Amino acid sequence: MDTPGELAAALDRVGYLADEGLATAAFLALRMRRPLFCEGEPGTGKTALARALADALGTPLIRLQCHEGIDAARALYDWDFPRQLLHLRALEAQGRTEGAEAELFTRRFLLARPLLQALETPGCVLLVDEIDRADDEFEAFLLEVLSEHAVSIPELGEIRAAEPPVVVLTSNRTREVHDAVKRRCLYHWLEHPGLAREVAILRRRLPELTQALATQVATAVSRMRAAELLKPPGVAESLDWAQALLALDRPVLDVEAAAITLGAVLKYREDADRVVAAGLDALLA
């Protein structure tokens, strides 16, 4: 893939419709061998981009899901203590306790977590999902790994990537990620898709969906996003809503169909109450 357009076409073939800005950012990340930092509201396609990149490149996707309290042991490696204990008991039963420690801390007892898996899988796509949920200490550790493409394990020595992974970091911006991490990456903000693009996404993912119904769903969801909701619906919710209508054999999104399927697109009671109070007829007009 020699141009952003060719990358966009490759992503299109695996079901991901990237606009020109996103295709260019992803292309540059590949060419410059830099991590791509994708930030935006939930449901704008950040995680799906990493999956699509892996599919388009024909390479494995390795995902590191960040969460509060995540540390190096959960992200990089750990030792398989139950197996080590069993092995130690077997050595003791054979009277071979001398040098047991050296046998216990070998590669056969090492549990590779996502970061180590990515370093050892040439050319894979590493998705560091929702990095904004991790803390500053983990960000500093991650920055070091991404800069060096290598880790040091005291018992085994240095493990360096033969071919660095393609790295995609995502953030829902629940907090600001440290500037040092952003400086290491190329940055792209993902907006919710426009009406025409969302209709195209719905039709691509749900071929049985008619143009008319896809337009109705996308229009209603766009109006919901303009309202002051706790959790504005993303593309995933649009797809859920369209699937619910198809499952109920509802070819038209009218007030009755919207009322019985609202839980597919709005996941907070307060949001559903607000939309209903404003009038479903107004939403669908």
TrEMBL record:
Instruction: Recite the lineage of the species.
Output: Bacteria, Bacillati, Actinomycetota, Actinomycetes, Pseudonocardiales
Q: Which domain of life is it from?
A: Bacteria
Q: Name one GO molecular function term.
A: ATP hydrolysis activity
Q: Which residues form the AAA+ ATPase domain?
A: 33-212
Protein name, entry field: MoxR-like ATPase
